[in-house]
Each structure stands twice: as C-alpha cells, then as structure tokens.
Give the backbone structure.
Amino acid sequence: MMRIPCIVCGLRDENEFTCGGTSHLVRPAIDASDRDWAEYLFFRDNPKGLHHERWRHTQGCGQWFNLVRHTLTHEILTVYAMTESPPR
C-alpha cells in the first residue's frame, strides 16, 4: 500500500484517496474535431517513469492536489496544490 502525503492532513494510507488521473491535460476547444475530442477523452500516455497525477483525499479533508509519482517504484517525489505549476 502506498502512503500519500496530503497537502492538508499529512501522510495517510492510499485507501483514503481517489486518483483523478493525469494532471495538466488541456481540454480541446468546443469546436475541435472529433479526433481531437477522442484523443482527449480516451487516449492517455502510460509512462514508465515520472507521471503527474491528480488525487483527492476522499476520506479526509476532501482536497484535490497534484503529485509526481514514479510508475515503476510508486515513489512519490513531490506533492503540490492544484493552483501551482508542475515542478521542473
């Protein structure tokens, strides 16, 4: 089980959280092509390495936040607020 550091509550067990998927996706314009919408809705990268994700502390404070996780080791490298830019 992963231990996830909530930006409000601190370190908690993974089962208190809900993953919201990949962070920083850019939504297509309303008049975008069907292909662009299909890419946005159905196709995601499955990286081997660092991945930016959205998480919500569902069983705690309810806050959404971003984190950077290594997909092979599940090591969480950093956690940051939804309003912050991704770390470089």
Notes: The chain has one helix and six strands.
